[in-house]
Every structure is written in structure tokens, then in C-alpha cells.
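## retry 2 of 3
previous attempt timed out at serialization; input unchanged, resubmitting
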Amino acid sequence: MTDSAHHDQAGSARRDPQDLLSRAALTVFRLNGQFLVRSEELARPAGLTAAWWQVLGAVLREPLPVAGVARAMGITRQSVQRVADILVREGLAEYVPNPAHRRAKLLRPTDRGRAAVAKIDPGHAELAGWLAAALGEDEFAHTVRALERLSEALDAVADPDAEPVTEP
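## retry succeeded, writing output
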């Protein structure tokens, strides 16, 4: 096979939707692992795990029911419930009444939980700055938007009436 024929074949393989899906999935799985390692490194000095940080982070702006945290994070309610119960037991979060639903209490961070998350901010800012410098700010923003669009498109797959997600 000539170099140009090989290039054309490889180029077309890179545009094949099934190949793109496989490559995207493998890359996201790898990214997930990389983010988990970095998150553990950032959270450890604050006395948190990546999972604890993730759940606390989901309720920093406003208290949410466990099911709402699970939806926002794209994980099961049961795994969020386990972490939420640990956070409450450790004094990093608390359950408060939910005016919209008597049985589904809201989870919110305590002052101690907010302080723990705040300890992560300098390392988080350093990593964000490093990535922005490595990729360039525009490319970093473009990458994040592409990942968000991919997530939206996968959400839409579950909805038979959904239209394909298109770039704005």
C-alpha cells in the first residue's frame, strides 16, 4: 500500500462514526482515571477523598437532595447516598428539611465542609492554570465545550424524541 493510500485509509478511519465513538469512549475513560488521580491528590491534604469533594462540590451553591446530586454528577443515587451519609457522619455536611419534598432531605455542606473544599482551591487553581497554559485558553475552552456537547448528545440518546445536538 502506498503512503498516500495508507494516509487516505487512516484519514477515513478517523472519520468513521463507529471509530470516533470508540476513540471518544476510550479517551474519556482514560481522562476519568486521570481526573480521579489528580482529584485524590488535590483532596487528600484537605482531609477529603475525590468522591467526598465531588459530592460537597455539587452542593456548595445550593443544597440538593441526594437524587439531584446523582443526576448532576451522572452517577447512581445509591453511591451518592453512601458518600453523603459519610460526609454527615464526619461533620462535613448535614441534612436539612426540603420544603418541596418532606421525605427527600436536602444535603448541604457545613462550615467545616466548606473550609475543607476551600483548602483545595490553591491546588485546583494551579492545575487549571497549568492546563490553560499547556493547551492555550481558547483551546481549553473549546475542549470543555466539546466534552459538554458530547455529554448532552449522550443524554439525548436516552430520549427517543430528542433532536441531535448541533453546534451553536
